[in-house]
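Task card 7
Instruction: Convert sequence to structure tokens.
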Amino acid sequence: MIPSDLQCPMLLLACLFAVLQLSMLTAQSPNELSARLLDSLLQDYAFRAFFRPRTGVSYDGIVPSNLTGIRISAMRLRSGSLRKRGTGSYKEFQIPAGMVEQPYVNRLVLVYHNLGNWSSLYYPLPGYVSLAPVLGLLAYDASNLSATDLPELNLRATESPILVKFPNVELAAGSGPSPKCVYFGLQGSVEFDNVVDGSACSTVRQGHFSIVVEGIAPSPAPDGESGGGAAGGGGVWKREVWIVVGSVVGGLVLVAVLVVMVVWVKKCRGRKKIGRMEEVAGGGVPLATVIIASGKLPVAMGTRTRPVLESEYLP
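Output:
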């Protein structure tokens, strides 16, 4: 049981800790945060596509209406089979033999993402133009197909690399900048590599992938604006909007929390003062009560020395 004189300071410390956590959350990049939340949401909807699932068969999922344009799919596999034979072709991914996951599980689910026109919002690259949508491949434990918010397994290729083949990618020929494969890690890292086989990317890890090219900024553009198309200027503008909105909302919540803290401290002090007054009152000698009409009234008891009239001492 926490003493009453320590409850208010502890509650104050808890509120301060919550405010610090909120400030750290609002300081985090909104795009990185939303991308990780999107992965969790798509995992949930991809798992819903399983109805009497068969091993090695991909099932297309349905995303909510506010994410129209994103395509998802899920395929359940045996870990041993994936390591020995791979999966061959799974959407745009060519998954070879020698795949290993950590930690080890008996069965796993490969979740596929095609972010379509949402690519530049969740994975913006200022100064680059996207030539292909962002495609994702993530692995999860398949022991519970109704689970949500699952952590990703660490899936890696130990023999041949995974190939990501992007269809309908127009690579401009000439002296301009050459297209690059871009890899988006789960922890927010971004890596570039050369395009292989015309319009494919090679990787040994899970994550999200796309093909981009450096954008050329328009000559009349003022300082501070970066060029680029879907993943350039549009992504920067959307990110700035998210930052402004997040800052305003975070500031309002912070002010509300501070007001609640001040009111709470005042109430705690008032309760402590009343408690002390009750303790002092309870420490005295209680008065006797008598019932008069319909109420109880305190009365004083008789004194030890009874009063004596002076006339009683006269001779």
